[in-house]
Structures are given as C-alpha cells and as structure tokens.
Amino acid sequence: MDDNLHPISDRLLTQKDRESSLGQKGKVVWLCGLSGSGKSTLAIALEKALYQAGRHVYVLDGDNIRTGLNAGLGFSEDDRRENIRRIAEVSKLFADSGTITLNSFITPTEELRSLAREIIGKDNLIEVYVKASFETCKQRDVKGLYAKVEKGLVPNFTGKDSGFEEPEISDLVIDTEKQSVEESLAALVDFVAPKIQREG
Fold this sequence. Notes:
By secondary structure, this protein is of the alpha/beta class.
C-alpha cells in the first residue's frame, strides 16, 4: 500500500449513524432473473412504493450502469463478473450510506450471486428471484431483445447462448407467470418493509 494513503474509515460516520438520520436500514434488494421476467418493472414499482412511504431509495439497473460506470464492459464471462463486482461494490457503499438500493440484474450464475453476497454482506442483502421461463420472457419481449436474438444480433444471450442457474438460496421467489404485477409487488413490499424498518 502507498505510504501516503491512510485509512479514514475509523473517523467516518457509521452505517448506524446514517440509518438513524434517515430513519431506515440501509439494504440492497437484489432482483435476479431472465431478461423480461419482470425485474425492472418490480424494482421501479417498489421504488415508488417505498418513496411514497418516506424512504430514501434508489434503483440500479442496466440502463444507468452500463451507460456509465460499466460502459466499457461487454458480455463475456470476465466482463459479466466485473460488471457484477462493480455493482456490488457500489451497492455496498449505498447500504453504508443508509440508502435502500434496488438492483435489477440478470445475475445468471451462483458464482456471480455469491460474489455479490460476499461483497455486500448477508446482513445488508435481500436476494429476490423473479421467476419466469425463457419461453414466457420471449413472448413478452418487452425490450425487443428476443427478436434481435432470433436474428443473431445479440451474442451470449442469457437463457439461449449462455445458461441461467436458478437460485437455490433466495430470500424470496416471485413467480411472475403465476402472479400479476400487483400481486408480485404486494409480496415484495410485504417481505421488504419489515427488513428496512429501524428499531427504536
């Protein structure tokens, strides 16, 4: 380590200090699942619900991460790992600030989810699997990605060219094939709300 660099963490406010000021617990709600499963829809809806309840909340997803912080990364195995590593590190800082962060990322393998878990810390992380089959997501094709996949315009597409490993240890599973957006959101709010409530 450079001799001119001195750690300052022992002189900064703590996460509990910031949580006390905000009246909430800093948490990272990480929604994973296939493209089109409903992750972003739920993250946006949850952000609005929590904001209306007076919570300090922020959404991270591909639109605001891959156009800025991770603009130089592609979709190779190494780039996917670096993408998740950076997102997890930013999320860790957000949690430390007392912010409730809602992450919407495919996160297709247990290795990547484990990496995020290790960086953020289990106490600050809520893992949510937004479940929907490849065929259902293909039919929805909200962003037109699946149509591009059929034309060979999207290499390494998760679920087709590269696999998606279903999570085995999620804190919550939301099946958007069986539940409406309203039902899914209600389940998500019911699960998350108690975990961001500060005691005392």
